[in-house]
């Protein structure tokens, strides 16, 4: 049985079969490390940076080092970008990439099932994130106590960031070796 996103410490050994042949430290030196892989990893880095920025700005505001209006502007900008880009990224993976990549190595079927399950879990986390971010924005906009909803938002970011990173690392560890080994011409 595969652990849920929140409980997992990494990919199960059975899903790491290609990662043994294509370890992270050798990815960029592979002849098949091309535009698609770079783009994919850059998108993942963008998600990590957005989460780090949101967390940092929220903590700065709670510490009294950032005005609540500036916080609201940044939560609105970075939060909207994170939600929109992550939904779009997962949609193209679910509809286009994963069905194609799943066919290349049947040993990894359960890995794609795991990633599909992660996307569902992340949808729920994104919904909670959006509600919490909107609570911050509404409190600042209405001149209400913004600190309490900001504290809730900040605490939620910690778990969301952890789970998102777990998914991104596991996805990279599964997908990049598939692309490096098989280099499907219709995707590369």
Provide structural commentary.
By secondary structure, the protein is mostly helical. It has a single domain (33-182), classed as Four Helix Bundle (Hemerythrin (Met), subunit A). It contains five helices and no strands. It has helices at residues 17-21, 35-62, 68-102, 109-141, 147-182. The relative contact order is 0.20. The model has no long low-confidence stretch (mean pLDDT 95).
Summarize the structure.
The protein has 188 residues and is mainly α.
List the helices and strands and how they pair.
Blueprint: H1 17-21, H2 35-62, H3 68-102, H4 109-141, H5 147-182
Descriptive key words:
188 residues; mainly alpha; Four Helix Bundle (Hemerythrin (Met), subunit A); elongated
Helix content: over 70%
Described by strand count, sense and barrel closure, the largest sheet is:
none
Number of domains: 1
How many H/I helices?
5
- Report the CATH superfamily: nmb1532 protein domain like
